[in-house]
Fold this sequence. Notes:
By secondary structure, the protein is of the alpha/beta class. 30% of the residues lie in helices and 22% in strands.
Amino acid sequence: MEYSIHLDRLTLGVCYYPEHWPESLWEQDLDRMLEAGISVCRIGEFAWSKFERTEGAFDFSFFQRFLDLAQRKGMKVIFCTPTATPPAWLTEKYPETLNAFPDGTLVRHGMRCHCNHTSPVFLKLCARVVEEIAGHYGSHPAIIGWQIDNEINCETNMFYSEADSVAFRAYLKDKFGTLEALNQAMGTVFWNQEYTDWEEIFVARPTLANSPNPHLLLEQKKFISENSVAFFKMQADIIKKYRKPGDFITTNGVFGHIDYQDLNRWALDFITYDSYPNFAYSLGGANGNASAFGRLRDRVSGLSLARVRSISPNFGIMEQQSGGGGWQTRMPQPAPRPGQMRLWAWQSIAHGADFVSFFRWRTCNVGMEIYWNGILPWDNRDSRQLEELRVLRDETARAAELAGSRYAAKVAVCYHYPTQWDGEGDIFHGPLEGVSVMNWFAACQVAHTPMDLLCLGEDLGLEALAPYDLLVLPHIALLPEKTAGLLKEYVERGGRVIFGARTGFKDEFGRCPMRPTPGPAAELVGGTVREYTLVPEDSRTAVVLFGRSVPMPRLNEILEPEDGEALGRWYTREFYDGQPGVLRKRTGKGEAIYVGAAFSEEMASALLSYAGLEEPYAQWLDLPQDIELAVRKKGDRAYHILLNYTDAPRPFTCHGPMTDLLTGLPCEGEAELPPYGVMVLA
Ligand code: GAL
């Protein structure tokens, strides 16, 4: 089963809220959308009360009228289940459905995402409303697909209600069988935390220093993921009974404490994503610094898109930012500059989106989001966004054949959900991942080396690794034996794997087995970690590698080769100066490298060039660092997508005749990408 959107052309959509506007406006809205190139509307995700005004009183006339109008006009619809905003009658009558803050105080009605996903009555009421909606609209010809819920785990990804504790106990009983096994796995012998009755166990509650048992906290996150998947599967199973053949099921992500590989497997046909690149320009944020994030700004959204691609190789964007943003209370942002909305849509497409739906048609004139600007302002006049949309209409039509082509990367940076969840509660290894992944992304961006993220899921096989020349496992602390075995096979066949500090020092429960680090990867890298130390963020510790000094930030490990070699040695005023800091071992046709620190951008660049993976398209294109190159391929045809995130024209050289699909014009020799410009060269 492949979890990809299957469209035969690039498609534009928009998020529309029929319930926010007078019904007399609908027709004019649909006409304006269609004229501007929108062929799909997403509707209904927050509209529970429009279907069930009071408990059990179902009425489907409102959206029926909208769907019928859409059908007449030729507009396609993605219909949503409304479970992210349960109505006031529900939470008043059944307060046990509410989520809670850690101290048990209930999260009240008035915002969104206020319920838990475990209380039996909530699950029953959700199942019923989904059954009614899908039963009623499932066969409607305007519908082409379904979105379950909205951004699950976005407003919060932690759950502390009584219902969650009850369900957590059941999960633990099922997983561990006996209290003895649970106590063993959770290391409760430490600080006298042993349980003698299941009823003594709760989801994490407030503790001194906000430091609950880390193993149980990790287990709680696995439980939240299982629960979220079960909540979605319940809805998907209902929709599947009623949907027309070919209609898809998706949701908009990507948020915390959900294993999206599982979610896809059990509930979805593919994932969609909500892309808001302007967060990089948030006012009052700390984004103007010299880190890769500060420098790359909106280009960093490519990293999130790589994560989406790791879930579905081709995907959709359910909400693509079209205006400046912010709630009345938070997230203040400036307006996108002329050209940026178009650029960001192409950024999504460059990374694998075949469907781009904008948030939102018209800015809402009531509620918390009056500043989240849509394509149209609330005064309803034409806008420069509408003009940019028309440009995209024409460009996506000319480049329609891009649909179904695949982002082509030779480098993959791997992630592992349990390691991430464990890292949220571990200030030693947790923060390393963000630093290293960002630096690998930055190094790949400036070297014009397309890069994927890759999920180290349980069902990962050799065929998923085969397309890559280089795998980077930044700091997979909870590296499973099985994955290490797979990596060994990959290396034997000629692959190259690079590990970072703290690899493999924990087991699946976050405990530290009595064995040398990097545990299951020790044999592959030919050595072990003797000692480690945290170093300050501004530390200048380095290793000498390939004849030069390369920074080794955050956490330094002193390594001891066994049958591997010391490829780099510490260059520092610290006590480990001169000792091994980077190891290498060849196995079969490939090799593994172990770097005893977080990855600096310089380290990532040095290793990219060592692996011969810098500027892989140099024979075709000479590009300045601040142009992004994304490559999508279909069979033998390669699409080179050039994106200029700056407000200045950027010169480049194109060797060999190519055509810009967006204009139909030839491109050869000295060329220029305009400010915020995009080209699709093939
Ligand atoms: C998304 C959400 C939308 C809207 C938008 C702008 O996270 O799905 O409903 O809130 O952000 O804030």
